[in-house]
Amino acid sequence: MLRKTIKLKLRELFNEWVESIDDPLIRDRVRKNTIITGGSIASMLSGEPVNDYDLYFRDRTTVELIVDYYLEKFKATYGSYDMKKIIEEDRVKIYIPSVGQAGDAPENEDEEYTGEELEEFDPNAEAEPKPKFRPVFVTANAITLSDKVQLVIRFYGEPGEIHENYDFIHCTGYWTSWDDVVVLNEAMLESLITRELRYVGSLYPLCSIIRTRKFVKRGWKINAGQYLKMCMQLNELDLTDLEVLEDQLTGVDAAYFMQVINAVKEGGRDINAAYLCTIIDRIF
Q1: Any bridge partners for residue 10, and if so which?
Q2: What is the pTM of this model?
Q3: What is the DSSP secondary-structure string of 103-127?
Q4: Which of 79, 166, 262, 279 lies at a C-alpha separation of 20 to 30 Å from 5?
């Protein structure tokens, strides 16, 4: 797909999402402060289906407004989830007691979440149009809307700041709402053409290691050096710390790994490799 076509499609998606927001203050904020980046642009350049569109924001105020707005929307629709916004020194997060997520993630650990799994199908019910871009799934780091939109709250800032936390170079193309520009770079295009994963560093190396599985299934290549880079970063983390382990697993194969986290919490024991392996074998 050509750059101009990508820009047109992203602009249309963004404008439609903005119009779904019924708060004029938030509409104004997101129009001036939204970045679409990640795998969607890579997929469009490659002519592949887009799984979802990741939206980030330039400043903390916009992130906080987005969290407040969609948590209220989620609670108004589903009602039973106890969630709240948590302000930390360097981030905004969503606290969800015990389960770590709100909504139903896919049952298949290899299946990607599309934002439709929460709503059950009733063949006898009258067909009623459902609002687009409604919140359907929430974790500490992101709010998933229907219609393939994910609002990422874990990071905010200018595109370069956001990409400092990205793992693979081919996902670093982006579109900006304030000047309607699609930005690509030579390294990402080279990675796409060769279909070779190039790891550039991440705050979530465990997640990155697990994510390589889906790319390999799609025909991508990855050399041993890239795994070594991920392992070196992973070695700096203490995965026996439950909070660290839970943070590293948030958003990847959520249905299964959240069961692992909850089992460890219920067991009330310190984490070690043998104990964790026992739980993983039971759940997977």
Answers
A1: none
A2: 0.85
A3: S---SSTTSPP-S-TTSPP-TTSPP
A4: 166
